[in-house]
Amino acid sequence: MATTQNQPTIRRGTTPDIVINTHADLSGMKVELTIASGEYQIVHTTDDKLVVITEDVPDEPTAEGEEPTTHKESKLHTQLTQEETLALKPNSKASVQYRCYSNGKATAPRIRTIAIEDILRNGKIS
Fold it and tell me: pTM score, two decimals?
């Protein structure tokens, strides 16, 4: 594969960081992240390698003179192992989804399909 300055070389066997912006407050929840490609699945949970980072985010400005308000949003962070990245096939697609468990209920956003290179190249899924 040709490489340009704008496109880093993809190196299978690396350990990329994966960061997912959720735009939701997941603090205190059990979360499970699944990346599936073909018959291979990578599952990271908050019980093992998945970390939930929750931050205060400013809301859109309201009427003049009102106190600024914030809301909480969480990011999911994990790192893939060399074994995991070697199992992903270049030039293929992966399905990515996280599930949240709270008070006996599970919720999940839609499944996203992304190119494997997006994970291996910069690890950031927004």
Answer: 0.78
